[in-house]
Amino acid sequence: MDPGGRRRHGLGTVRFVALTDDGRMTCDPDAAAVEAMLAGLRERQYVVLQRLTDHDEGDCYLQVLLSEAAIYEVEHRAGVAGECQWT
Description:
Elements: E1 7-8, E2 12-13, E3 15-20, E4 25-27, H1 31-39, E5 46-52, E6 59-66, E7 72-79, E8 83-86
Antiparallel strand pairs: 1-2, 3-4, 3-5, 5-6, 6-7, 7-8
């Protein structure tokens, strides 16, 4: 990894996007932007944080949904095999 933390061997630039259920996309959001997105969720709204990867690495994302009971439901997926975890 370079000193700026933006490159990894073989991957090129590592980038993140944040997607909201109303269609907004934020490229490379910082921690404060992600925190604001999560704090602004209303019932049944979600935010997806996705790392853009090479095709052979598979998907890597985190989806956060605010349920009707005001509980955050989190889904994490990483890898080619599509391993998902929920909490």
